[in-house]
Structure formats: C-alpha cells, structure tokens
Amino acid sequence: MSGPAPPLPVRTRAAIFVRLLAVQGAFNYETLVGNGIGFCVEPALRRLPGGPGGDAYRAALARQSQYFNTHPYLAGVAVGALARAELDGEPPERIERFRTALCGPLGALGDQLFWLGTVPGLAAAGLVAVALGAGWWAPVGVVAAHLAIRAGVGLWALDQGLRHGRQVGPVIQRSALPAAIEWAGRLASLAMGLALPLVAAWQLEPVPVVRRWLAIALALALFRLSQRSGGRLSPVELTLGTMVLTFLWHWSTT
Amino acid sequence: MSAGELAILALLGGILGLDTVSFPQAMLSRPMVSGTVAGAVAGQPVAGLLVGATLELFAVETLPFGASRYPEWGSASVVGGVLAATGGAMDAGRLSTAVLAALVMAWLGGWSMVQLRRLNALLARGRHDVVARGGRGTVMRLQLAGLTADLARGVALTTAGLLALVPLQAAALATWGGGTDLSRAVVAATAGAVSLGAAYKLFHAVPGFAWQFLLGLAAGLALVAAL
C-alpha cells in the first residue's frame, strides 16, 4: 500500500456522478451491472500511476468491469469505495473480496429505500395530487421530488464511498439510511392508503351511483380472487382478462 | 397521424423507455408522467393525464427488482397517452381501449427488455477477453451499445404499437355502442383491484406498515366524504 490518495478533483467526481445515471446501460444476465461499474469508476482510475492505459489502470479497469450487482441509486457507494481502494493501492485480492462483499447489502438497502419506499410513495402522492385537481403539476412535482431525492442520495453515496473506502460498510450502517428506509416505507404506506379512495372517487365522478358501488364491489372481488389464486394469477393478468371479457360482453349486447 | 408526428412520438417512446432502466431513471417513465407528456404532444394533456394516472394504479404493482422481468411502462404509456388523446373528447370506450392497449404494450415492453439483456450478454461475452485485459474502449463501447440498443428498442416498440393500435382502436370505437360510464367504471374497478393488491403486497409483510396504510385509507375516505 502506498497510503491514502489525495481527494478526487470536483471534475472527476462530477464525471463519475453523471456516469452513475447510466450505470445500468449495459445490464445483462451474466455480468449484471459489472460493465457499468467499470464505466463509472473509470474517470478515477485515470489518476493511478502510469495514467490511462498504464498497467495499474488496465488491471483495475479489468477488475472493476466484472460481475457486480447493486441497486442503481446506491451504486455510488460501491463506485466511490472501489475507486478509493484502487487509488489507495490496496492489494488486488483484498479489493476483489471487498467488491464481492459489497454486492448484496447495497442491493437490499436500495430496494427497500426506493422500490418499497420513495418510488411508490411519490407515485401515490402524485395520484393524490391528481385526484385533488393539481392537473399536470402533479407529474411535474413527482419528477422534481424524485430528482431531488435521487441527486441528494446519489451525491451522498458517492461521497461516503470516496471518503471511507473499504470502511464504508459500518459508516452506512451508522448513517441515517436505515432510519430513512423505515420512514420512507411508512410514508409510502400512508400515501397509498390516502390515494386509493381519492383516485377511485375522482375516476368514478361521472359514473352513476349504482355503477360506482358495482365498480367498488368488482374491485374488491378481483382483489380477493387475485389473493386466493395464490400467485398463479398476477393482478395485471386478472385485469386484462376481466377487461377483455367485460368489453366482449359489452360489444355483444350493444 | 402523419409520418412526422409518428417520428416525434416514437422518439418520445424511446426516450421514456430508456428511462425505465438504462438512463437516467428519473421517474419520467412512470405512466402518470409519460402518459401526460404523450397526451400533451398529441394535443390533449388532460386525456393523457387521465390515462396516465389510471395506468399508474397498475404500475404501483411493479417492483423492478434487479434482473426480474417486469412491465415497461415508459413506451407503453406513450402509446396509451396517444390513444387517449387522439380524436378529441374522451368518448365511450376511448379510456378503456387506451388502458387495455397500454397494458398489452407494457407486457410486450417487459419481454423486449429481456431480449435486450440477452443481447447485452451476448455482446459482453464476445468481448470478455478484451475487458479482462482492461480495454477502456471496449468497456465504453459496451455501455454505449447497451444504451443505444435500449433507445432503439423503445422507438421500435412505440412505432409498432402506434401503427398497429391506432387503427385497431378506431375500428373498435366505431362499433362501441354504450356510454362512457360503464367503460370508465370497469377501468376504475380493475385499476383499483390491482393497486389494492399492490398495496397489500408492498406493505402487509412489514410490521407496523399496515397501520399506516389503514390510517391513510381512513383519511382518504374522510376526504372523499368531505369534498
């Protein structure tokens, strides 16, 4: 080891951050986001001894472009920490072990924070806004809020990775991220609960009262049927089937 | 629809399809957003928002975990938004056929993403040795090839969807007999069932989250009663 490397210039950090937006660009079933990690970490590797094209650069880029799995929004933690480890001159076998250890936890944290928290939460909040008459401001607000969260978390993740290198795991565990996951899930649950009746009322506004209640009864019956099918019938498949049957019946009687 | 309009909408479908996974995952591909944008481009943003918000109720069921297969809502919602916006007023059957078409497109989009991932794997396998030697150009080209192929996938899917489904919808609406309320009620019921299932799937397994959901539900029902 040659000791801690100096901090990366802002320009290099910015290049990595922009590339992180396309980390899944070459996603595939064999290396998953491996090529994307190599693509994102590459601007930092140019600072290795020998510069771009040097032996150290080529060995590090080859290492970082192999199989890797992570959540795309938290990939900055991995990219930053791996860049730090490479620039600090850590032994290759230690970097590879660290790389393997990073895969699972970041994916699980990101799935909980984003796919089960902020994304459905913002979607539900947008639906509430639509139902309350916000019009096209609702989608604009959803995108703006998501971009603010995404950029904030992305910059923080990259900074933590670059700052702490191989020690980033305990730092993330002690950070506000676990509490944010808890709160994002709770708020998403609340927003989903709030959205369902409001959107139903908005959609059924021009429908006569009797048909409104029939629609609610049909929704509950379909939900129950979907639950009872034990996963054999996805909600979307059930929906497609119901809609096709309803409209075939409608056509045949009009 | 003129060739110029088709080209603009196809490019829009490509860009919004790209947002789903490859770049930049900014929620532009959420149906509420992409449906509204497509409706606006087709001259009816309100119709686009209506179909987009309805499709959003289906999309909350989608959990895009890693390598799993899931519907692709970006380009599908462009097709749905255009179908809802074409022809002026939201006449009988228009919302239903737009939603139905978008669901089929989302399913096809999910299938096409699986094919894209296979193509990316094939490209990566063919260049594995160069990547293992740290070939910078190859790593960059693989990334750009994946992004370009995903954009092309969205453009092709949207083009095919619009070319096939716009005339199909016109033919279906020509024989549509009833009023708007029945089709709207069926769409609302099915969307409600799917979103209820999504809420159940998302939150019932986590202790405490069900209470937040029920609290939100009570507040929503109170608001409906008050408004």
Keywords for this structure?
heterodimer, A: 254 residues, 10 helices, 0% strand, elongated, B: 227 residues, mainly alpha, 9 helices, flat
Question: What does this protein structure show overall?
Answer:
The complex is a heterodimer of chains A (254) and B (227). Chain A has 254 residues and is an all-alpha fold. In chain A, 73% of the residues lie in helices and 0% in strands. Chain A has ten helices and no strands. In chain A, 50% of the residues are buried. With 227 residues, chain B is mainly alpha-helical. Chain B is built from nine helices and no strands. The model of chain B has no long low-confidence stretch (mean pLDDT 92). Chain B is flat and about 65 Å long. Chain B starts with a helix and ends with a helix. Chains A and B meet through helix 2, helix 3, helix 5, helix 6 and helix 8 of A and helix 2, helix 3, helix 5, helix 7 and helix 8 of B.
Present the secondary structure layout.
The complex is a heterodimer of chains A (about 250) and B (about 230).
Chain A: H1 10-20, H2 34-45, H3 55-64, H4 75-87, H5 92-131, H6 137-164, H7 168-174, H8 177-203, H9 209-228, H10 235-252
Chain B: H1 3-21, H2 31-41, H3 45-59, H4 73-85, H5 94-126, H6 128-132, H7 136-174, H8 180-203, H9 209-226
Helix pairs in contact in B: 1-4, 1-7, 2-3, 2-4, 3-4, 3-5, 3-8, 4-5, 4-7, 5-7, 5-8
